[in-house]
Structure formats: C-alpha cells, structure tokens
Amino acid sequence: MPPFRSLPWPARLYLSAVIAVGILMVPLGWLLHPITGDALPTLLYLGVGTQIAALRPIPWRNGIQSVADPLLVATGLWAPGAGVGAVAWLALFDGRVPGRAITWWAFLFNRAATATVHVLPSVAVASIGMGKWWGLPARTVIYVVVAVALNYILTALGMAFVKRVPFWTTLFENVGFATLIATLALSFSGGILFLLLNAPEAVGYIMAPGLFGFVLAVRSNVALAQRQTELKDQTLDLAAQALDARDRYTESHSIRVSELSAALGEHLELGDRECELIRTAGSLHDLGKIGVRDDILNKPGPLTEEEWETMRRHPDIGADMIVQHSALEEVAPLVRHHHERWDGSGYPLGLKGEVIPFGARILAVADSFDTITGPRLYRQSLMTTIEGVEDISRRASHWYDPNVVNALRELHGLKPLDVLNSPEVPRRITSLRVLRSNPGFSSLITAIGISSLGDPLTQVATLVSIYAATRDPRAVALGFIAQAIGTILMSGALGGIADRFPRRRLIVSLELLRAAVLLATPWLVSVWWLLIIPVLFFLASINAVVQPARQAAIPSLVPPGQVGKANAIVVATGMLAGAVGFALAAGILLEFHTPMVLFIADAATFVLAAAVVLGISNLGGGGRKTPVSGALRRTWSITEARPHLVIGVLAAFLIPMSFPALLALAYGLSAEGGQTYSMLEFVLSLGIVVGSIAIARFGAIGTMRTVGAGLLMTGVFSLAIAMSHSLILIALALFVASLGNPIYAIANQTALIEAADASNRGSVMATRFGLVQTASILGTATGGLIAQAYDPHAVYGVLGVGLVLLALYALAAGRSTVNPLHGAAYEQAQAKEAAAHLDTNHQGSPADAGAPVTSVP
Asked: Residue 851: what pLDDT?
C-alpha cells in the first residue's frame, strides 16, 4: 500500500473519517451498552478466541481473509456496544506489523471499520427480545446482514478512493456471490456460538471450542487448497521452463505465452476458471515438442518438408499426453488446435473459423505474437512490440480471430479494428455488465421496479376497502376471482396484442390508463363498494398484456447471450420492489388511516413508469399482420417451445398446491398460527429473492437442465417438509425449496423467449402467463382439497413427488452445456465425427456383414 501522504486527498479525507468514527465507537458503545461485570469473563474468553482466529487468516492471491467473524458476532450478541468495539480494536492482530508488513493507515482503517460494522448492528439488535423462539435467529440474521453489508461498503469505498476507480466497479469485481454466501454463513455461526455460551453451567465453554475448531478446520482446508493451487502453478512454470530449455530459440517462451493468454482472456471478460485453464494451456502448448528430435528442434536453417511434417505433429503429441489426465482434459483441445488458422490454412486438422476452440484462438495469437517479439538467447527480437501487434492485426480474419486481435491491440493501447460480422465472444456475463452495457434495458428495469413498487399498494387498498365495507371474507375472495378471470380471459383470447402493436406505445398507453382508473377508484368506492370488483377485473386484464409485453421486449434490448441474465434481473427486481411496496403500503395506512391514499400513490407509480418507458427508443412489436387472437395455437406451433410450455404449466399446477397447505401447516405447528405463517412467508420470500439472484450466476440459464435443477431442489425439500414436524426444520427446508422456484421459473421463461422470434414472442409469453395463472388456480384449489381431506403434510408429499418426477424428465431431456473455451461449433463437429466413427465401426461388424442372427424363445 502507498504511504498516506501520497494518497489522493479524497482518500485521505475518507480514511481519516472512518478511523475517527471507529475510535468513537467504543465510548459511544459504552454510553449505550457498557460492559458489565457479569459479561467480562465471557468477553475475555471471546477476545482470546478472536485473537487466535485473527492469527490464522486464509491467504489468497490478492490478500488475506480473516475467520474471526463468527467470534465477533458472538461477542456483539454477548456484549453489544463497548464490548465488541473493544475486542475489534484489541484482538485482531493478524501478524502483520504496522509500519513494516502493513502501512499504519491500513492497520488503523481495518480496526476502525471492524469496530464500526460490529458496534452499530450489535446495539441495534440488542432491543430484540429473547423470550420467543425466533428472538435469537432474528437478532443474528439482522446483525450478520447489516455487518457484512457495512463491511463491504466501507472497504469498497476505501479501495475506490485509494485506487481512483468507481465504487460499483470495486464492489462487484471483488465481491462475488459465492464469497457473499460463504461470509454470511460463516458469520451466522456466531449465533450458534452465542447459544452454546448460554448453556447451563460451563457446558458452553467446553463445547464452544469444538465449533471454533470446526471453523479453523475449514480455514485449514481452504488454505491447503490455496497452497495446492500455488504448487500447481509453480509445477506448470517448471514444466514450461523445462520445455523451453530443449529449444535454444524459445527461452521462457511458454511462460510468456501463458501470461499473455491469460491477460487476453481477462480482457475478453472470460470467467476466472476459463482464464486459469487458458493460462495452463499456455504453459503446456509446446509440450508435444518432447516428441520432436533435437536435431529438428534446434536446426539453424530451414526445415525440409519431412521435418516440417514431424514438427506439425507436436500439437497432437502434446494433446494426447494431456488428455490422459482428467484434471487437464479441458486443456487438450486448446493445445491440439493452437496452430489452426481462421481461414482453415493451419494444422493439424485445418479447422476454420468458429469451429476452432475459442481458447485455441487465444493461444494462436499469444504464441505468434511472442514468437515475433519475444527476446531470444541467440538473436534479437524480429519486431518491436507495436510492430508485432500491427503484424498480427494485418492477419485478422485471415489467420486469427478478429476479437482476439482487437483484445491484443487494446492491451497495447491501440484502437480496435472495425470488423464486419465479428464472431461472438463467450464473455463472463454479470448482472452489472448487463445493466451497464444496455441502457435501454436499464430503463426498462427502472420502470418495472417502479411499477412493481406500486402493485402491492393497490392489492392492499382493494382488499382493505372490500373487507372494511363488508366484513365478509367471501367478498375478498370475489376480488381475487375477478383478477384471475381477467388475467385468463385477456391472455387467452387476446394474447397477440403484445405482438400486433408497438410495445413501447402499448405499455405507455396501458400504464397511463391504469393510472387514470386508479385515480377514479376512490370516488367509485365511495359510491358503491361493489364497483371495485370490475376495477380489479380491468386492472388484471391490463396487467395480462403489460407483463408479457415487458418480457417479450427483453431480447430487443440485450444481446442473445444475455437474455437469461436479464430475465433473472427482472424477476429479482420485481420481488424486491414488491416487498418494499408492501412495507410502504403499511406505512401509508399507519400515517393516513385510509386506503384511498394508496390508490393515488399507485397511480403515481404507473405514471412515472410510463414516463421512463417513453424514454426507451424501441421495445419491438408492431407486427401488423399478427392476429390478436390465436396466441395459444401460434405458441404450440413452435416445436422447441412445447416441452418448456408443458413443464411450465405442470409445475405451475404443483407448486401452488402449497399455498393453502402452508397456512394450515403454520396453525398446526404453533398456537400462534398467524405469526408463524408470517414468519414462514418471510422465509419463502427470502428464498425466492436469493434464488433469483443465484440463477443470474449460472452459465446456461434457458436450458432443460437448469429447469430440472430448480424443480428437483424444490421437490426434494418439499418431501423433507412432508416428513418433518419440527418448525425449525420445516423453515430451513422451506427456504431451500423456495430457492428452486425462481431457478425453474426464470429458466423456463428464458427458454420460451429464446425459442420464439420477434414476430410471436409476445404471444408466447402471454400464452405462458395465462396458462400458468390458470394452472395456479387449479393447483391452489387441489391443495386445499387434499389438505382438508388429509393434512398439509400430505400436500407437500404429493407436490414433492410430482416435482421430482418432472425434474427427472427435464434433466433427462436437457442438453449439455457448451464449454466456452471450446465453443458450440467445435463441440458439434466433434460429436459428428464421433457419430461417423461409430457408424463406420457398426457397418464393419459381423452382423452387418450377413452373419446369422439367432433368437432365444
């Protein structure tokens, strides 16, 4: 880290502020929650444990990770405020001496940030009572989420100021989904540690080191994995040096090719795993030269044709050696084809264009570039770096993939070439990249978030208004029935509207129409409460057009490879905005004591959403020849869409069977059925949100395998609910089961979007929307009948078995995913070659040659 004085002044100001706040956390914590005499022995016990954990960090390539978080969480629960603040300042020495191994400002910033992120949430959750069974879980979850979020934000801001890079770039590039989940899970174990320390007598103090030992064991395993990775890298470098030592003209060539290949992969935004495989392939790309005689390898003059034939065999020799080791199997095609050329003039097979594995195209550029620019033991480089880049550039689209050539140019500060019909790059697609690179989609997400924020306002307002006027639950049910009928009729009879008319104009018009109806609703309700029923029917009918139109517009706003990620972002945004909307509705009711304000607020959200959509240039649609009716027939005519449509409808029938069963289950498990049901609904919603975020990390989203994975997860853990009678176990199983729901749903929607084209995409999504709504109603009714005839556990058993069977079909029917370093074209060519080889062998078998075939009765 640079000295404090050399940092930019915003960085110095921010770091000084965080350090000052961190110092103030201890006296502030003492004022709110001083350390009591009774808490002091346990506080010392936790402080010692924290210091031991701090001395055993996990070493990573770009830094270290502490495993002291669980102990700090336990300390914050045991001695909130001053206690955890003191431990954060005094018991986190990790062995790096300030002023030597770490700068003083970094040392103080780390302590201050840790104190801040633990004192604040510890004080905030201290008021949550421990009398109920949910008290400790609630305190721990809130504490951990707030602490982890604050820690990432404070640290990312600090690094952004120090390195002068945007905050969001720093956050998303350094905090992955897997890291976030691991940190949350590890920190949550602090609540378990706190529970142990509250055990009677000294049992907790004896058992707690066991949990602490488990954390250290995890640390040791991760550290060992990191050490093994380092040893592997060093072994590959040694192998590369040994290879280069045989050829006096290629000193350190393999190592340089390895580093340049990895840099090109990172610049092309491939995944971390893909970049590591390319780095390995670069180290081993000339492994086959072991099979080339020294007199050919080191011949000072030109090679004869026979010698060239021997030299051209080295990619096959190296790949055949590599493929015998399963850990390096994916690297073999890259090594085998790194001398192929874009125009088909290379060797050993003369592959052409996108049939060449993508990783091999990267190796080809890196290998050629280092050959003409790299230093040699017995001669100077043929070209300077820039001359080498220009020489490679002249052969773009002839010898080399133009995308890789442009990456090489940009690495050396040169402008990319203008290339027509450039092939697609298998980039690592993140949610941030989808939003940042597609401004039209970002605007659509904003509109969806605003609109979804308002939907709960109308839902709450209508239900409260109906019940306040009638005091009859059947009238509330009538409102739900009106919404369902409107949705089914509109999507079934007029599903082609989203294709017939320009979607931008259609969505804006319908959003404004919804706003106008909502503004008139308070007056209609004041005249006669029953008028709210046709209002609900009308609003649901509009939603049955707007929602499929938004989904159908996604492919016109993002590239084909980003549709799945975009769909996941849409679902996650809708879920989060809906949750905030219900909280906002509760706040408005508490403030104004009338549901009429909710109608006006929701109308404002629709007007604002329409204004945002109006700023998007094009959302597709406008096929004048597309009939408004017949959406189901057009959808069914798409062969690829049929299995996804059938699976979507069957799943939509099975999963809603749990809706009435969950309510009955809550009242059967606890005397406080209402509170238990609310808690289970919260767990369910949390799982859906996490699942929506998780699927955005998947490499292939719109596939049967992803659909099957989501259904299998939901089905298996639904069976776990059916066999459980413990509320804690049911809540945990419900959370995991709900993770699979958005995984299946988003994958199913994405597959249908990708199966359709621009002329019928709106019809397909409207058909799915209507069929899913119909199946959901039937499923809910069926679940209620089963729960009444038997019990809610039976409902979960039926839907669990059904989902597992459906998942097995989807997994069996699903296609395998494409390795991004190989590419679809190469894998298809390999499959055809294997099929032809099997066919040749079959034709030469004795049975085909006319040998008699006998049968056994």
From this structure: 35
> In the structure, how many helices (H) and strands (E) does the chain have?
35, 2
Q: Whole-angstrom Cα distance, residue 575 to residue 581?
A: 10
8 A C-beta contact, residue 279 and residue 287: no
Mark the ranges of the chain whose per-residue pLDDT is less than 50: 62, 377-379, 845-857
* Residue among 96, 77, 6 at smallest CA distance from 39: 77
What are the tokens at 245? Answer: 């030592």
State in words which class domain 4-226 has.
mainly alpha
Phi, psi at 384, each rounded to 5°? -75, 170
**Checking DSSP bridges between strand 63-65 and strand 58-60, what pairing results, if any?**
antiparallel
> What is the CATH class of 635-826?
mainly alpha
Query: What is the token pair recorded at 648?
Result: 């979507």
The alpha carbon torsion through 538, 544, 550, 551 (nearest 10 deg) reads 170
Q: Which two tokens stand for residue 446?
A: 């904003």
Three-state secondary structure call for residue 98? strand
Residue 655 and residue 646: Cα distance in Å, rounded?
Answer: 14
For every residue of 618-657, DSSP letters joined together read: ---B--TTS-SS-HHHHHHT-TTHHHHHHHHHHHHHHGGG
Class of domain 429-629: mainly alpha
> pLDDT value at position 366?
93
Query: Is the whole-model pTM more than 0.70?
Result: no
Residue closest to 793 by CA, chosen among 671, 666, 682, 680: 666
Distance CA 574, CA 547 (A): 11
Eight-state DSSP code of residue 164: T
Q: In the beta sheet, which residues pair with residue 59? A: 64
Q: Domain ranges for the chain, please list them.
A: 4-226, 247-411, 429-629, 635-826
Hey, what are 581's tokens?
Answer: 């909307």
Closest to 706 in 3D by CA, of 660, 751, 640: 751
| Secondary structure (3-state) at 339 | coil
Residue 67 carries which side chain, given as an amino acid letter? V
Look at residue 853 in the predicted model and tell me its pLDDT: 34
Region 247-411: CATH code: 1.10.3210.10
Mean pLDDT of the chain, nearest integer? 80
Q: Do domains 429-629 and 635-826 have the same CATH topology?
A: yes
